[in-house]
Amino acid sequence: SQQQQEDEEMLVPHQELSTADAAQPMEVVAQTEPTNTAESQAPEDPQTSRFTWTIENFTRVSGKKHYSDVFVVGGFKWRVLIFPKGNNVDHLSMYLDVADSGNLPYGWSRYAQFSLAIVNQIHQKYTARKDTQHQFNARESDWGFTSFMPLSELYDPSRGYLVNDTVVVEAEVAVRKMIDYWTYDSKKETGYVGLKNQGATCYMNSLLQTLYHIPYFRKAVYHMPTTENDMPSGSIPLALQSLFYKLQYSDNSVATKELTKSFGWDTYDSFMQHDVQELNRVLCEKLEDKMKGTVVEGTIEQLFEGHHINYIECINVDYKSNRKESFYGRTYTLNCVCILCAISIYYLMVTYAGLADLQLDVKGCRDVYASFDKYVEVERLEGDNKYQAEQHGLQDARKGVLFLDFPPVLQLQLKRFEYDYMRDTMVKINDRYEFPLQLDLDKDDGKYLTPDADRSIRNLYTLHSVLVHSGGVHGGHYYAFIRPTLSDQWYKFDDERVTKEDTKKALEEQYGGEEELPQVNPGFNNTPFKFTKYSNAYMLVYIRESDKEKIMCNVDEKDIAEHLRIRLKKEQEEKEHKKKEKAEAHLYTIIKVARDEDLKEQIGKNIYFDLVDHEKVRNFRIQKQLPFNSFKEEVAKEYGIPVQSQRFWLWAKRQNHTYRPNRPLAPHEEAQSVGQLREVSNKAHNAELKLFLEVELGLDLRPIRPPEKSKEDILLFFKLYNPEKEELRFVGRLFVKALGKPSDILTKLNEMAGFSPNEEIELYEEIKFEPNVMCEHIDKKLSFRSSQLEDGDIISFQKPSIPGGDTQVRYKDVPSFLEYVHNRQVVHFRCLEKPKEEEFCLELSKLHTYDDVVERVARQLGLDDPSKVRLTSHNCYSQQPKPQPIRYRGVEHLLDMLVHYNQTSDILYYEVLDIPLPELQCLKTLKVAFHHATKDEVVIHSIRLSKNSTISDVITDLKTKVELSNPDTELRLLEVFYHKIYKIFPPHEKIENINDQYWTLRAEEIPEEEKNLTAQDRLIHVYHFMKDPNQNQ
């Protein structure tokens, strides 16, 4: 065994050992050979085993370290290693060792949970035991405890560990299969599924899992009335029903997007992250409201609502004041990601702490019972703090809280987060805090209950869930340990993953407190280093024993509305179908077939450039080994086109990024399999084959065999443009001879367009459209080859425009129309003050200048002066306006206003100014809060001055707008953040760089006593706390 591994100690909580009377260590006596016994739970190759090692003549063991015999667990060889005199510490050191580590193959590893114990041979209950878990490998082939127990206790014969110079060591080893999280199946391993994390929504997932695993609550949710016309994203009841159904019947982790959408939280809100308190509030309020007037009305109150009495009792007179309040176990905790500063979190907590909810102190309390003791602790109101009793004046009194009743489901909020007044920040309380598996709130003759409480109800609770926060005040992760059936088996619900866990993991390891860090160089430091555990419970859910049968009821499909079952089963079937398709995708090729009908349907409506959108044509899912000729038979059945009348063309992507039919399939290619053909035609190696189906019609309009195509034949596609209607449409395709001329087909084109045979028309070739439109006039006298036309090319034609004609047209020819289409942009405008509400849309061009855009907006708003319009761009990621507006002529074109990093938006925000924007940009506007010296009022003033102005200019301007206590009073300007003064501005400071968006600017009169400060005088910052947190100063 390597020395470094021998020295290491596992991270386990420190255990207090029971002590007896102290005595001197015994004298060292002789050693004999140790004896070994092993008790296995399974006779062959056990996965879990207990090994007992009896070491006689212990004090005579020579050598620094001592090994047990080898024992086998899970097919692996193990042994116990001890250091009888300590591994460079004054404690017994003990480890579990892989016995044959030197002979194992390269890269070996095994995972084990184990406990090591020194048996107390006098009182078994005082046995010293520590347990841990480890992934053993070549570098760490032994693992255990350097400071297992003090040598002074081990060698003290009165303690019971060393009896007749014999020590008994026990090792319990459970070899676990290492979880491969890439292939781990929660449903298969545990019977439960997890919830997907949308991005910092683990706090929500842990709460939802807890609520779901309260069957009575789940049943009530299922019984809430919803209809088949409801949409989950717009109905919290339906979204929750859908979520619970999927948790109950799905095989994979479940998404929560529909539920958060039903809250009104969009994707960005999910990333910003709400907190558990807000989620619980939204959920409970909405559910309570939706349950009214239904069979499940009052379920929330019945399950979670309890009552306590706030009382004040006078000592010397007969007067008592009682106030009954209800409480819910709702959650008040911090965000999973640091998105609020500590002060604002404190504000949230103080604001909601005023609600009647049961929160237990952690700081200064050993366990839940100590917290309840503190909760009902009697406060004496005396001296300066006497109570004003009606008709009796100021009186000495006792003030306190007692419980009238507890709810069936008791949610206890542990106050793991507190505001530290000394440090002016939020802190997390990681102190050790114990909670029992069974909680008896009737203890000590019901000391937590009022005299009027119903004593026939037995308030004995069993632990159902432990919600955990792992991390610090500014970040971390949430997960939950739950006993879904209240059996001994716990489960950890950590977002998508659900794992089985033991009771110790769910309870003791979530108490918080300290752990010992492994010692790397124990010879240099005899004291094990302890560190704080940052994973601990912040919420506990208990279920009353007397209500257990009712709450842990059976919930099955008959509890779910039929329309919901049908809807969700259909969703599940579609999901399974897609999953199957995905799994079998490598066996199939998707063939996308475009026809003349698709071109007629799409050109001029969905598309203008190229010929077709392949995402909107008929798809065929064909097995790769199927001969292509067999596929043609399927096409014949689909479209009624005989196989001999079908000719398929391959599409090709050209260098100019256009996509055109390139060549027809040869007979030998059609004889290949679909898979072979796809590989030949597709260099990108995706699973698609794109084809154009050419079908020629006879005089009777029935399909005929396509004519032979020679090298001289060119297939061209034709679009017709109507300038008056601004309409472009597909009118057909023709084969032309390469040496032929456009003039040869003019009559045919007029026929296709519905024009007279001799109508004069202009022809243009559509060449490309990215990044710019290229569309060139075709000389009708040149041959098609001379014009460099080839298979798949597109010709758009129109009647020639007539200069000075009667009809005014915006785009007189094909190139100008295509340029317009390429650059047109519909922009959705919103008022900056109402950034979620769309007010109007304008069709603009991406090439419009800044002046063009504001002129169109001004015209829409009925403004005479466009320079009073100020625009702000849209942030595509936050779905909010950008913080800084667009400067006057600060961008060249509309496109520059819409691009945000690599994304293009179609939203702009506008505001109407009282002065032109160029003039405003030369000024600095500051919002200043003026606090009157004698009146309890604050007035916000907007000060608009030249950017070169100073603080002195601001104060001068402000004096003209405010009421002063004295005309000669001096003012000062302060920089404040959350009521804390950070700076007093000197009068000469320039205002240009002051940020009043982040800081609050406070103006106030300078008190007379501060004007004549001496060197001995000091100004002290004071924080005034009010009942209403909004008024804190």
Automatic annotation (TrEMBL):
<dbReference type="InterPro" id="IPR002083">
    <property type="entry name" value="MATH/TRAF_dom"/>
</dbReference>
<keyword id="KW-0833">Ubl conjugation pathway</keyword>
<feature type="domain" description="USP">
    <location>
        <begin position="193"/>
        <end position="545"/>
    </location>
</feature>
<dbReference type="GO" id="GO:0016579">
    <property type="term" value="P:protein deubiquitination"/>
</dbReference>
<comment type="similarity">
    <text>Belongs to the peptidase C19 family.</text>
</comment>
<dbReference type="GO" id="GO:0009867">
    <property type="term" value="P:jasmonic acid mediated signaling pathway"/>
</dbReference>
<feature type="domain" description="MATH">
    <location>
        <begin position="48"/>
        <end position="173"/>
    </location>
</feature>
<dbReference type="InterPro" id="IPR028889">
    <property type="entry name" value="USP"/>
</dbReference>
<feature type="compositionally biased region" description="Polar residues">
    <location>
        <begin position="32"/>
        <end position="49"/>
    </location>
</feature>
<dbReference type="InterPro" id="IPR008974">
    <property type="entry name" value="TRAF-like"/>
</dbReference>
<dbReference type="Pfam" id="PF00443">
    <property type="entry name" value="UCH"/>
</dbReference>
<dbReference type="InterPro" id="IPR024729">
    <property type="entry name" value="USP7_ICP0-binding_dom"/>
</dbReference>
<dbReference type="GO" id="GO:0005829">
    <property type="term" value="C:cytosol"/>
</dbReference>
<dbReference type="GO" id="GO:2000280">
    <property type="term" value="P:regulation of root development"/>
</dbReference>
<keyword id="KW-0378">Hydrolase</keyword>
<keyword id="KW-0472">Membrane</keyword>
<keyword id="KW-0812">Transmembrane</keyword>
<dbReference type="Pfam" id="PF22486">
    <property type="entry name" value="MATH_2"/>
</dbReference>
<feature type="transmembrane region" description="Helical">
    <location>
        <begin position="332"/>
        <end position="355"/>
    </location>
</feature>
<feature type="compositionally biased region" description="Acidic residues">
    <location>
        <begin position="1"/>
        <end position="10"/>
    </location>
</feature>
<dbReference type="GO" id="GO:0004843">
    <property type="term" value="F:cysteine-type deubiquitinase activity"/>
</dbReference>
<dbReference type="InterPro" id="IPR050164">
    <property type="entry name" value="Peptidase_C19"/>
</dbReference>
<keyword id="KW-1133">Transmembrane helix</keyword>
<feature type="region of interest" description="Disordered">
    <location>
        <begin position="1"/>
        <end position="49"/>
    </location>
</feature>
<keyword id="KW-0645">Protease</keyword>
<keyword id="KW-0788">Thiol protease</keyword>
<dbReference type="GO" id="GO:0031647">
    <property type="term" value="P:regulation of protein stability"/>
</dbReference>
<dbReference type="InterPro" id="IPR029346">
    <property type="entry name" value="USP_C"/>
</dbReference>
<dbReference type="Pfam" id="PF14533">
    <property type="entry name" value="USP7_C2"/>
</dbReference>
<dbReference type="InterPro" id="IPR001394">
    <property type="entry name" value="Peptidase_C19_UCH"/>
</dbReference>
<dbReference type="GO" id="GO:0010078">
    <property type="term" value="P:maintenance of root meristem identity"/>
</dbReference>
<dbReference type="GO" id="GO:0005634">
    <property type="term" value="C:nucleus"/>
</dbReference>
<protein>
    <recommendedName>
        <fullName>ubiquitinyl hydrolase 1</fullName>
        <ecNumber>3.4.19.12</ecNumber>
    </recommendedName>
</protein>
<dbReference type="GO" id="GO:0006508">
    <property type="term" value="P:proteolysis"/>
</dbReference>
<dbReference type="Pfam" id="PF12436">
    <property type="entry name" value="USP7_ICP0_bdg"/>
</dbReference>
<dbReference type="InterPro" id="IPR038765">
    <property type="entry name" value="Papain-like_cys_pep_sf"/>
</dbReference>
<dbReference type="InterPro" id="IPR018200">
    <property type="entry name" value="USP_CS"/>
</dbReference>
